[in-house]
Amino acid sequence: MEQRKKLTWTICFLAMAAAAAVLFIWNLNAGTVPLSVGYVAEILRGGHMGEAAYRIVWDIRLPRILAALLLGGALSVSGFLLQTFFQNPIAGPFVLGISSGAKLIVALTMIFLLGRGIMVTSGALILAAFAGSMVCMAFLLVLNRKAGSMAVLIIGGVMIGYICSAVTDIVVTFASDADIVNLHNWSMGTFSGTNWDNVRIMTPVVLAGAAGAFFLSKPISAYQQGEDYARSVGVNVRRFRIWLILLSGLLSACVTAFAGPISFVGIAVPHLVKSLLGTSKPILVIPGCFLGGAVCCLLCDLIARTIFAPTEVSISSVTAVFGAPVVIWLLVTRRKER
């Protein structure tokens, strides 16, 4: 029986890795300017295939694909950590309003700095998004302690999201700077415009956050059995919960800073991964979530870029189409279980 489980897990991870590789190549070739696999391969090898094609592959598509891979994984892992923290399968950065809070602070920071002619760095965006995430998380913690109801928590999170999004839209609408007005596309969620400088900043942040979550696999496994059990096996629950908040906030903040708020990935992917693997063991689910989130965002970004090409839709519109049915299924399933 144990051998069969290990075989299943191996096949699942290989399948997700293969899907990520296929989508990586497909994203490089597909777009407003379609390029063949051989043509792209020659460009990547350093062949002189034309300045325009070189810039499309190296300066536009490759950074964007890497961002989708990294940020998709980060968003999924962040969702899993939040679901563990609140012990609620519907918890996620977008639904709880955490992404919207981060979006609001990022927009205000950019308006304040750009309005004074100060250049906004990637590090400043991450810090602003992290601050917004922590403010919303603090409000949710107070709400969770006062209400003690998961339904109230979810409704409160949705309301936070609406308020923050509304304020962001108002601020962006009345912004005078042309660069700030262009924040409208970012506020809807997009990987467009990602460059190599962004990739160099997000890579260590995402990998450090994901590694931190993986190293918490053992206490997460104990915490899933309940706080009393976790304490009985030596877990410092208070410190552990702080780490969950910080890591989930850091990962979701990085996503919001570079791609804006992306809906439903943080909720849907962890549950799909757990269903696929047939287990809730964090040591398997966390890397599975990272791979699954990468596959999900690579696929959704491909659809967003190509379905109505040359017009591009926001990635949140695409992720909502796939993610919302999963959330509805979760709600129906939990109701039947009761």
From TrEMBL:
Keyword match Transmembrane helix: yes
Domain of life: Bacteria
Coiled coil: none
CDD domains: TM_ABC_iron-siderophores_like
Localization: Cell membrane
Keyword Membrane: yes
Protein topology in the membrane: Multi-pass membrane protein
Regions that span the bilayer: 7-26, 65-82, 94-114, 120-143, 150-175, 201-221, 242-264, 284-304, 313-332
Keywords associated with the record: Cell membrane, Membrane, Transmembrane, Transmembrane helix, Transport
Gene3D superfamilies: ABC transporter involved in vitamin B12 uptake, BtuC
Record InterPro entries: ABC_BtuC-like, ABC_transptr_permease_BtuC
Family assignment from sequence similarity: Belongs to the binding-protein-dependent transport system permease family. FecCD subfamily.
Name this protein carries in UniProt: Iron ABC transporter permease
